[in-house]
Amino acid sequence: MNMSGYEKAAIFLSAVGEETAAQILRGLEPDVIGKITSFMARAKKSDKNQIESVFLETMEKVRSGDIFQVGGEDYVKKILTRGLGNESAEKILEMVSKESPLDSLKWVNPKTLSSFLVMEHPQTIALILCLLEAEQAAAVMETLPENIRGDIAVRVATTERIPDSALEEIEAVLKVSLDMGKVSQGKSFQGTKAIAEILNHCERGTEQNILEKIEGQSAPMADSIRELMLVFDDLEKVDDRGIQLILKEISTEDLTLALKTASDTFKQKIFKNMSQRAVQILKDEMEARGPVKVSDVEKAQQNIVKIARKLDEEGKIVIAGRGKEEFV
């Protein structure tokens, strides 16, 4: 459910009743009130699932400490009951109470989590980052001291399985330091993929610094991570000028194979940046080839991705959506 904070606030206030909503609005800034009430005025009646989702998120944030508890959990329970009825309120409270410490991490502010983690062993930090969503893990990674990032990244990349004992130790640490709950399951893990996704969300400078440190310890591992950081489908985010530069560097053989499994949208983007004659030759070649091995297609796509990555690192093309850099 993809809703903005203002939309969630509008749903919340619409559900708790006029008196409670009025009390809450009195404590907000005028511009915030304007945005929230604008959503309230435009919104159609929210369905029960939307309301429950918003209340559940609110309750979880209260429990994790992200929201100051005006009246504690009892106060929130009263609001839940008023907005959803006693049965639904009890259901949400039960869901929150069953949440594991590791699940609760998603509600912890990255800076808060980082300040806590910096006191832990690098292996503990690495395992916790493995269990976070990539974007949150990236935010935590960027606030950790620079001198330990490379070591932690290597530990994430080499993680293949998180044993029960490690999960239990992590939970014990979290329960003491962040006042959270309990879980007990082993977890299979692909560390290189995890660190690749984390680095994809990091600022470019952080990404390059960490990759250099990983490369210093293991060049093959750094190459594996780089391969996972950018996949062929990501090239659809490159602008037309960038596509033209990539096309100049790749062979017709690789392009013919690589496009075999590409989406129609991506194919059209490629065709748009070629001459009509070149497009016709390429289409004829693709049709004449008939069925090809998946391994050959993947190899061709990897060859093109390597060229795109080189152009990206040289600053000649921009792959939209990587990291959090802004462009003007």
Structure overview:
By secondary structure, the protein is mainly alpha-helical. It has three domains: 5-98; 106-227, Flagellar motor switch protein FliG, alpha-alpha superhelical domain (Annexin V, domain 1, Orthogonal Bundle), CATH 1.10.220; 232-313, Annexin V, domain 1 (Orthogonal Bundle). Helix content is 70%, strand content 1%. It has 20 helices and two strands. Helix 5 (72-84) packs across helix 6 (86-98) and helix 14 packs antiparallel against helix 15 (219-229). It is globular, with a radius of gyration of 25 Å.
Give start-end ranges of low-pLDDT stretches: 68-72, 180-187, 323-328
Strands, count: 2
* Largest β-sheet summary: 2 strands, antiparallel
Number of helices: 20
Q: What is the average of the pLDDT values? A: 75
Order of helices and strands: HHHHHHHHHHHEHEHHHHHHHH
What is the class of the largest domain in the CATH system?
Answer: Mainly Alpha
The coarse silhouette is globular
Structural class: mainly alpha
Strand order of the largest sheet: 1-2
Count of spatially separate domains: 3
